[in-house]
Specification:
Chain A: The complex is composed of two ATP-binding proteins (LsrA), two transmembrane proteins (LsrC and LsrD) and a solute-binding protein (LsrB). The complex is a heterodimer. Chain A is built from 13 helices and two strands, in the order H-H-H-H-H-H-E-E-H-H-H-H-H-H-H. Helices cover about 75% and strands about 0% of the residues of chain A. By secondary structure, chain A is an all-alpha fold. Chain A has a single domain, classed as ABC transporter involved in vitamin B12 uptake, BtuC (Orthogonal Bundle), CATH 1.10.3470. Chain B is mainly alpha-helical. Chain B has a domain of about 220 residues. Chain B has a two-stranded antiparallel sheet. In chain B, helix 1 packs across helix 12 and helix 2 crosses helix 11. Classes of the chains: A mainly alpha, B mainly alpha. The interface between A and B is large, with 45 and 49 residues.
Chain lengths: ~350, ~350
């Protein structure tokens, strides 16, 4: 009896890992096909400028998707990210326009801090208030947006009020890679390594697979959940700074409705909404796929209005694929149990 | 053994307290609503006028109608985030069909059918394939809104017949009662009776409390949920028609973002997101409260966007307060039990 229960987890982890690899391979395949088809139609799609634009457009979404993936893996959701982006973008833009000499790193840290506080509020309400994440973050979606609106009123921060080094940050590059993309890559890599190789990451997966089992196994659920929400908030705050730097003009509506794009990227990227499976880099690939679809439609001269419908169809396709994988895992596990 | 007993008693007690707290949240909301209405009509200029009443009812219309089936869906433990996009798609289709030269009398039922078909797709994906409703309806949220743009682009169709657009914004006999209020009352009565006075309605609570137990006690869980999504789609289609007629403008982005307002109103009304708990009167109170507050603040020249803070806080408090009070009571109860066992041991 003890022998079987000791043997079961490694074999499950192995098959899960194998199947998940194919799951993310699916996104890569879809991405490759899309890029190849578009490039054959119009070779300029693979030009340096086009690739650069696509990556720049993906960066902000991918940073938010990284945080969202971590939260969704724990079987929670963070709907407030669009509003956190808004409040951070407006706060940092105001800060920079009032203090022209502040270095860029201060702006980045300020955004991270604002987001982390917003995420901490979410986490505390979810864990200690015992309020479901969907309700808390739907509530704070309204609250954070409302705070930004009452602060900003109808005003906005224009590009000419912002210091030059802040605005050029978005387009400056190091070794040919724009800062924006570099930051996104660092965030994705750090998130992936954390979730894959570090104790906290594995514990977050365990919580998502079964919260009561994780608690019984001695995992500090409260602390880990707080970390997940703080990370998601902080990354949304960071995305706010990147948003302000890239677009220059910031009003209280910045990032409005973005939460659905972020959740879409995460779901398309193979993170199951029931938690416990998926990966950060899969979510980032999801963000890239959604962005490339948009630009590919423009290049292929297909009506831009199809974009959202295609995204919707992709989300449903992705969930169906996850369901298929889950059914197959369950069947193979049952078969294995039968042999034992 | 005794450890388990001690742990279980407060848990039972907690759920009982939670239940009574949740039912009382309904009454808190209703009292709050009446208070806001009374205070606003005395302190806010023009709030109590019949003209403002008509505007308020028109503002109320989309949220309250979509909230009726949404309440049932959330009671069963599911969710439908695609309603606002269904609204947009029917609005687009209405404009397109009107441009094709169909008569408005045939367009309106057609649009409701289109809404119902959107619901059928949701229902099939969720109950037929067993996919999670949150993810599915986020998908169809994007899909239906996208199709709305495919149908109509970013243009608008505005030349709907005056007698229809006038009916939606008009009042009965040019008095104080808006025409659409009849529609709201009739639909609310139907949904209220079905939810609170029929076996079908009771089965929704059983499904929300424990779908598996409901299945074993003979309730057709999948079929019930399926029809709820069809009803939700059909009502969203109807609201799409009314929205288009009210603003006399069929646009693809009509009603964008409304889904979150509806879910917020339903949860504010005391319905549990986990299913199994909540009542329609509480939800109706929640919708009226939000709309009345918004209306009063707008008349006082307060930005409607700042009101978001109130909406969000109420939403979080509606779940937080019962939990906090029950936790406090649970602690108190446990301490009392411990004292009792200590004295009996002596």
């Amino acid at each position: 009896m003890t022998a079987t229960s000791l043997e079961a987890p490694p074999s499950k982890r192995f098959s899960l890992g194998g199947l998940l690899k194919t799951r993310e391979l699916g996104i890569v395949l879809a991405l490759t096909l899309l890029v190849a088809y578009t490039a054959i139609d119009n070779s300029r799609f693979l030009s340096g400028q086009s690739i650069r634009d696509n990556l720049l457009n993906t960066a902000i979404l991918a940073v938010m998707a990284t945080g969202q993936a971590i939260v969704v893996i724990t079987r929670n959701i963070d709907l407030s990210v669009g509003s956190v982006l808004g409040i951070s973008a407006f706060a940092v833009a105001t800060l920079m326009s009032n203090n022209q000499d502040l270095p860029m790193i201060v702006a980045l840290l300020a955004g991270l801090a604002i987001g982390a506080v917003a995420g901490l509020v979410n986490g505390v309400l979810v864990r200690y208030g015992k309020v479901p994440a969907l309700v808390v973050t739907l509530g704070t979606l309204y609250i954070y947006r409302g705070i930004t609106y009452s602060w900003a009123g109808g005003s906005q921060v224009n590009a000419d009020e912002l210091p030059r080094h802040f605005l050029t940050f978005a387009n400056d590059s190091i070794l040919g890679v724009p800062w924006l993309v570099l930051i996104a890559l660092v965030v994705i890599a750090a998130g992936s390594v954390m979730m894959r190789n570090y104790r906290i990451g594995r514990e977050l997966y365990a919580i998502g697979s079964s919260p009561p089992a994780a608690e019984l196994a001695g995992i500090k659920v409260a602390r880990n959940l707080l970390t997940a929400f703080v990370l998601s908030g902080a990354l949304a705050g960071l995305a706010g700074v990147l948003y302000a730097a890239r677009f220059g003009t910031v009003d209280a509506a910045a990032g409005n409705g973005m939460e659905l794009n972020v959740v879409a990227a995460v779901v398309v990227g193979g993170v199951a909404v029931f938690g416990g499976s998926g990966s950060v880099w899969g979510a980032a690939l999801g963000a890239l796929l959604l962005t490339v679809i948009g630009s590919a439609l423009a290049v292929l001269d297909i009506n831009q209005f199809w974009q959202q419908a295609i995204v919707g169809a992709l989300i449903i396709l992705a969930i169906c694929a996850d369901r298929l994988v889950a059914v197959r895992i369950a069947r193979s596990l049952r078969k294995r149990d039968a042999h034992v | 053994m005794s450890d388990i007993d001690l742990d279980q008693r407060p848990a039972n007690n907690r759920s009982a307290v939670l239940k009574s707290r949740l039912t009382s949240w309904d009454s808190i909301i209703l009292v709050l609503t009446v208070l806001v209405l009374i205070i606003a009509s005395f302190t806010v200029d023009n709030f109590g006028t019949s003209r403002n009443f008509t505007f308020m009812v028109l503002d109320l219309l989309p949220i309250i109608l979509i909230a009726l089936p949404m309440t049932m869906i959330i009671v069963t433990g599911e969710i439908d985030l695609s309603v606002a996009s269904t609204l947009g798609l029917t609005s687009s289709m209405m404009g397109w069909l009107w441009n094709q030269g169909l008569s408005i009398e045939s367009i309106i039922p057609l649009c409701i059918v289109i809404g119902a078909i959107c619901g059928v797709v949701n229902g099939f994906l969720i109950t037929g394939l067993g996919l999670p409703s949150l993810a599915v309806t986020i998908g169809t949220l994007a899909l239906y809104r996208g199709l709305a743009f495919v149908v109509l682009g970013d243009g608008a169709v505005a030349d709907f017949p005056w007698n229809y657009t006038g009916w939606v914004t008009g009042t009965i006999g040019d008095g104080a009662v808006p025409n659409v209020l009849i529609l709201i009352v009739v639909l609310a009565l139907i949904f209220g009776i079905v939810q609170h006075a029929t076996p079908f309605g009771r089965s929704l609570y059983a499904i929300g409390a424990n779908a598996q137990a409901a299945h074993f006690s003979g309730i057709r869980v999948a079929r019930t949920k399926f029809w709820l999504y069809v009803a939700s789609g059909a009502v969203a289609g109807l609201v799409g028609v009314l929205w288009t007629l009210r603003y006399s403008s069929a646009r693809a982005d009509n009603g964008a973002g409304l889904e979150l307002a509806v879910v917020a109103a339903v949860l504010l009304g005391g319905v549990s997101i986990f299913g199994g708990k909540g009542s329609l009167p509480g939800v109706l109170g929640g919708v009226v409260l939000l709309t009345a507050l918004q209306n009063a603040l707008r008349l006082e020249d307060v930005s409607g966007q700042a009101l978001n803070i109130v909406t969000g806080s109420l939403l979080v408090l509606s779940v937080l307060l019962p939990n906090v009070t029950s936790a406090v009571r649970g602690n108190w109860h446990r301490r009392k039990l411990r004292q009792a066992s200590a004295t009996s041991a002596q």
